[in-house]
Amino acid sequence: MSVLLDRFYAGPLKGMERKLLTWDQAPKTAWRATDLFSRRGMAHVIQHYGAEHQHGDCRAVMSLWSKYFLALTTYTGVAHNLLADRQLPLDLSRLGVVLGEDMLIDALVVEDTSTPLADTRAEARFLPLIHDTWGPAITCMAHNSGIAPRALWSNLGQYVDYLVGQLHTLPAAQHAAEAGEQLMTLRKLADGQRNPLFQPIRHCKNAEGDIEPIRRVCCIRYLLPGLGYCGNCPLACREKPETQSPRRVVNG
Question: Where in the numbering of this chain does the Ferric siderophore reductase C-terminal domain appear (predicted)?
Answer without folding.
Answer: 215-235
